[in-house]
Structures are given as C-alpha cells and as structure tokens.
Amino acid sequence: MQGFFRYYLSLYRPMIQALNQLLHPYELSYSLWQVMFYLHEHEQASLVEISAYYGIEKPGITRRVQRLEELGYLTSAPGNDRREKSIALTAEGQRIYSECRQQITALERRATAGIATEQLEQTVTVFQQLLGNLK
Amino acid sequence: MQGFFRYYLSLYRPMIQALNQLLHPYELSYSLWQVMFYLHEHEQASLVEISAYYGIEKPGITRRVQRLEELGYLTSAPGNDRREKSIALTAEGQRIYSECRQQITALERRATAGIATEQLEQTVTVFQQLLGNLK
DNA sequence: CAAATATAGTTGCCTTAGTTTACTATTACT
DNA sequence: AGTAATAGTAAACTAAGGCAACTATATTTG
C-alpha cells in the first residue's frame, strides 16, 4: 500500500481548517479545544498530564492554559503539590464545550455522510494500529 | 461514529514527525517533499498548478520553490507565458527523491505492519470519501 | 487599438503552533 | 542537610501558512 501516508495527509488541512473555522466564533482553535476536551473527560488535570497525553512539550500547554484562562473557560487551583496546578473547566467553559461538541459532531456527520458505520469503525481500528506502530 | 476526527487527528503529529525526521538529513520537510513529489509525477509544473493542487496559497509555494532551488533540487525555466515559471526536478533532485521515496515506503511498511492490505485499501477509500465531503 | 481586467509570481508582515534552553519553586531521595 | 527529580514558566527560535499589496505580463472589451 504505497502512498498510504499521502492519502492520510491530504485530509489533514481540510479537516483542521473546517474545525478551526467552526471554533473561531468561540475564540478557540483545535489546539485549545484539545485541552477543553481533556478536561471534560477528566474533570481536573495537571499541565504535565495534558502535556504527556498529547505528546506536546510543557511550554505549549502552559500557553494554551493561559489563553483558556483569559477566555474564562477554565480556572486553576493548587493541586496536591504546591508546585502542581490543578485546572478545570468553569461553568462557562462547560457551556462552550457542549455547544462546540454539538457542532463538531454535526461536522463529523457531514464529513462521514454516505460511509457505513462498519467502515468507519474499521478505519478507527486502523488508526489505532498505526499509532501503536509509530510510537 | 462520534469522535472520529479525534482518532484521525491523534495520528497526525506522530506521522508528520516521523516523516520530517526521516527527511531532515536531506534538508527537507514534508511540505518541501510535496513539491518534489508533484514534480516527480508531472515532470514540470507552474507554481499556481501546485498551489491549486495542494490548496495552499501561492506565496507558500513560492517560498517552497525558492528553498528547493537553493538546495539544487529543482530548476526553473520560463513557461509558455512570460509570466509563468516552469519548474522541474534536477538530476540531483531526482536522486534525492528516489532515496527519500524508498525510505518513506519503508516507514509506511513499518507503520502498517500487521494490517491487512484490504483494510488499508478500504481506509484509503474512506479518506477519499471524507475528502469529497469536506470540500 | 487603448483601457480595463485577469493571471503568475513575489514581497512583507502577521498568526498559529510547536520546540529548546534555562530558570524558579517545590518535593523526594539517600 | 544536600542532591535529584518534578511542575510550571519565560524567552527566543523555527516551521508553516494566510492576507494584502505589488510588478509584470496577457487577455478581454468597449
């Protein structure tokens, strides 16, 4: 299956652009959305936790968190440690999360229209195998 | 199939990082590689042609081409028009292309190890459908 | 044909997203 | 107590792309 990566990658820009366009009215981008998503799944988290989860260096996460705090979508409190920061979505953040979640799901539906659920599930399985092999 | 985009996107950074690491010894990145790939398929091309093909604004292509010219991987000649530029791979460029092509194919094989060819083909079909729906 | 319009490419400036290095503060190890 | 490791931050850098404005040519049209 030569050229597999090329097929994969040809999809990236259209997808990320559609997502960023969708998120723009909320002053979000996909990279900020990732943090909100993580917090929606985990209630609260530390910065290293998120850094490790997405495989992105800590300074990148610091800045995302700072931005989201400015927007009022999350708050930070001291964690277990006195060096650790525990961040969580605010009520506003949760509201915005839900609204975006709905729109992203709608976009996903549009994008996957006409593709059988089984096919999509198999594709996800392929993604997971690829991910395993690439790390 | 909620969260499909997330599965897709989780693969992007590992893949692009592996590719860029592989291309780094040749002073290339995936964005530069794309231009070389196009020229390998088409012998010669104009900048707008490549711009349209990858959906990237002209200035971005201008800069990629300038960089590849510096590296001696491509040359430009006047096109049909006197405003148009016709670019093509140099002998060196073709040599580098082949070398990278081999390595990328090897990487693809590693990444897709243990996945049935049929599955990969179906995945590519899904990519194409998604792409059609997103544009 | 002359003037207006369109096209190819370039330059400059900006934004987004990420990395590396080096630092502070705190905690854990021995 | 002294050394190591860990959490977070700041500064400086790079890669990649977008937008606006420009030049030079070509095409259209009045």
Would you list the SSEs of chain A in sequence order as H and E? HHHEHHEEHH
What's the shape of chain A? globular
Low-confidence runs of at least 5 consecutive residues of chain A: none
Describe the oligomeric state of these chains in a short phrase. Answer: homodimer
CATH class of chain A: Mainly Alpha
- Mind telling me which CATH architecture of chain A this is? Orthogonal Bundle
Could you describe the largest sheet of chain A, including whether it forms a barrel?
3 strands, antiparallel
Strand content of chain A: 5-15%
Number of helices of chain A: 7
Observed structural traits:
mainly alpha, homodimer, DNA-binding, Arc Repressor Mutant, subunit A, 135 residues
Describe the overall structure:
The structure is a homodimer of 135-residue chains. By secondary structure, chain A is mainly alpha-helical. Chain A has one domain: Arc Repressor Mutant, subunit A. The first copy, chain A, is 68% helix and 9% strand. Chain A is built from 7 helices and 3 strands. In chain A, strands 1-3-2 form a 3-stranded antiparallel beta sheet. In chain A, a hairpin with a 6-residue loop joins strand 2 and strand 3. In chain A, helix 4 crosses helix 5. The longest helix of chain A has 21 residues. The first copy, chain A, binds a DNA duplex (30 and 30 nucleotides) through helix 5.
